[in-house]
Design brief:
The complex is a heterodimer of chains A (335) and B (328). Chain A is an all-alpha fold and 335 residues long. Helix content of chain A is 76%, strand content 0%. The longest helix of chain A has 39 residues. Classes of the chains: A mainly alpha (335), B alpha/beta (328).
Chain lengths: 335, 328
């Protein structure tokens, strides 16, 4: 087991190094850049040359990359070109916001998706099943930004059920401990702050959850249909076990194996979906940071760091999924 | 009163847009306490569907079950689903064909045995596991303590079937239904499992319905045999009677097609010609008529009735094999 983990972590390092090189070259070949953004269009060539030299962009790209990696290894990701703040600080502020949003979305997607998928399979071909299938099709195909603005318009402008944007009401005097506002409120016993943050969290989380929810419903449904036909479910029925026991111990336990894999793969969808969702609800997480860093003059250091972090999160979550698999399914357990 | 009295049991499968198919056609048979009864026939003759109908394990949709299944006088077909659930596993146990797929792959063997004890005998997990250990020991699984925590893929095929037998007999049911319990096993293991079943049935006094296509299994185990063809009982007889004097041409053909060690070298094996696909519907005549060597005109004039024979059995045939030309 330990050997598997170590091997996977080594693979992760190689992946990240390759990815960092790719991003580095790719970003620097995008049209526009920090120099144009900082100096504007009418800057004199002399001033431009001076800034390019000051930022080190006149050196060969390999040298630039080498210096970047050297600093990364010492834990220094550089400073934001836009604001001048250290990249680590900028990201540390935005990261918990996005993770809080992603976790909330995943709770909705799994908490709603698994029961719905189970019921659709159980009542296959009936009204509930057909409605669910139609719903998942809509959920997969509706663009996130469209759904986001729609929900926002109806539920925050027409009827004021939810706050339109932000993570917490202005004037809410909350203490930040972890950066996860809902959790912070519970830790510091500022329950009003917790509730307020949760209230802000619901709409963005629902928006972000639609695609993973639709995927999880479909996978669960297909998987439960498979398991329902298994001989061991018939054995369980022949034992006269209660419906509850058969559902939990014999059907869902087996049917959820593919769903767990899906959860890992959906992390990618969550991270990319977060960019759009955060824009719509002005969330102030990594998604907002990434859009601001691109439109605000290609903030190379920040962009590099965010993309690498996203890759790191994705690979780690999938590593966790693979490891959990070994615990759930005895057949894949490694000696 | 018989332990189990199946009367005119019919199962019709009907899927939307398809013609209804009668898998079991007015089958009647009885099982006395402690008796071993065989249901014999080839694939598709309705023997498994019969057992699933008795257990109430057929899919909820797409079929119609009629007739009566009287277990100690109670019609199981009329019980509410929850009441039937209370009886399954407690009064009637069942073991299936494929022991690997019949066990849950992600749950330890011990729990799979224990849960039926928890359900029907109100034991807590600790007590049920202790009892499960005894049961595994009783069905001849070596090192039962270790097996409790092992998973189905970690033990052999024979042991899996033994575990399933332990599950089925855990609550000391009065009836055990075994649906081709040896088909998926090696020949040497088959013999062990049959010996075990025979021994357990003798010890506990449990009645047994043995569903099989293997006449060898019947010969070693059953008191009475019901031969099914095309969803109907075509012959019923005591074991010795059936093997000594098979009357129905189908039974005769089955016995004749068993290879014998004492046959003359080079002699061709007898086979029943045609296949189940040649069957005609029972309403038009005897379903076996197209494959039968003894066919007469009356066979195509509607279904022959099931009539008692002189030797105490029942026979559904217009022109049975005469007792003289029976298997040597």
């Amino acid at each position: 087991m330990l050997r598997v983990i170590v091997r996977r972590l080594l693979q992760l390092v190689v992946t990240l190094i390759a990815l960092s090189a790719l991003i580095f070259v790719w970003l620097r070949n995008l049209p526009g850049g920090p120099v144009e953004a900082l100096l504007g269009e009418r800057a004199t060539p002399e001033r431009r040359a001076l800034l390019i030299k000051a930022l080190g962009y006149d050196q060969p790209i390999l040298v630039q990359y080498g210096k970047f990696m050297q600093r990364v290894l010492t834990g220094d990701l550089g400073n934001s070109i836009r604001t001048g703040d250290p990249v680590t600080d900028v990201i540390a502020r935005a990261f918990p916001a996005t993770i809080e949003l992603a976790i909330a979305a995943m709770i909705i997607a799994v908490g709603l998706g698994v029961p719905l998928g189970y019921l659709a399979a159980r009542y296959r071909g009936r009204l509930l099943d057909n409605l669910t299938i139609a719903g998942t099709l809509l959920g997969i195909s509706i663009p996130i930004f469209f759904l986001g603005y729609l929900l926002k318009d109806v539920l925050t402008q027409d009827i004021h059920w939810f706050p339109p944007s932000g993570r917490i009401s202005t004037g809410m005097d909350n203490t930040s401990v972890t950066g996860f506002y809902v959790l912070d409120g519970l830790l510091t016993r500022e329950f009003d702050a917790s509730a307020d943050a949760l209230w802000h969290l619901i709409l963005p989380a629902v928006t972000l959850a639609t695609i993973p929810l639709a995927v999880i419903v479909r996978i669960t449904r297909a998987s439960v249909l498979d398991v329902l036909n298994e001989d061991y479910v018939r054995t369980a029925e022949a034992k006269g076990l209660r419906h509850r026991t058969i559902r939990g111990r014999h059907i869902l336990r087996n049917a959820l194996l593919p769903v767990v894999t899906t959860i890992g793969l959906q992390t990618g969808a969550l991270l990319s979906g977060a960019v759009l969702t955060e824009k719509v609800y002005n969330w102030g997480g990594l998604g907002t940071l990434i859009t601001d860093s691109i439109s605000g003059g290609r903030d190379y250091p920040v962009l590099q760091a965010i993309i690498l972090l996203a890759a790191l999160v994705f690979v780690l979550v999938n590593l966790l999924v693979d490891l959990s698999y070994a615990f759930i399914d005895p057949r894949v357990r490694v000696r | 009163m018989s332990l189990l009295d199946v009367r005119d049991l019919s199962v019709v499968f009907q899927r939307r847009g398809e013609r209804p198919f009668t898998a079991v056609d007015q089958v009647s048979f009885t099982v006395e306490p402690g008796q071993t009864v065989g249901l014999v026939g080839e694939s598709g003759c309705g023997k498994s569907v019969t057992s699933l109908a008795v257990m109430g394990l057929l899919p909820k949709r797409g079929n119609r079950v009629t007739g009566e299944v009287l277990f100690e006088g109670t019609d199981l077909l009329k019980l509410r689903p929850d009441d039937l659930r209370d009886r399954r596993g407690r009064d009637i146990g069942m073991i299936f064909q494929d022991p690997l797929s019949s066990l849950n792959p992600v749950i330890p063997i011990g729990v799979q045995v224990a849960e039926v004890l928890e359900r029907h005998r109100g034991m807590d997990r600790r007590k049920a596991l202790r009892e499960a250990r005894e049961l595994l020991d009783a069905v001849g699984i070596p090192d039962p303590d270790r097996r409790l925590t092992e998973f189905p893929h970690q033990i052999s095929g024979g042991m899996r079937q033994r575990a399933l037998i332990a599950i089925a007999l855990a609550c000391k049911p009065r009836l055990l239904i075994a649906d081709e319990p040896t088909t998926a096993l090696d020949v040497t293991i088959q013999a062990q499992i049959l010996t075990l079943l025979k021994q357990l049935v003798d010890e506990t006094g449990t009645a047994l319905i043995m569903i099989t296509h293997d006449l060898g299994v019947v010969a070693g185990l059953c008191d009475t045999v019901n031969v099914l063809y095309g969803g109907k009982v075509v012959e019923r007889a005591a074991r010795h009677e059936l093997f000594a004097r098979p009357r129905h041409p189908y039974t005769h053909g089955l016995l004749n097609s068993v290879p014998r060690l004492d046959s003359v070298r080079g002699e061709r094996l007898h086979a029943i010609r045609g296949s189940v696909a040649d069957n005609i519907p029972w309403v038009e005549g005897c379903a076996f008529a197209p494959r039968c060597d003894n066919v007469v005109d009356a066979c195509l004039d509607g279904p022959p009735p099931l009539e008692p024979t002189a030797s105490g059995g029942d026979l559904r045939c217009n022109n049975p094999v005469s007792e003289e030309v029976a298997v040597p």
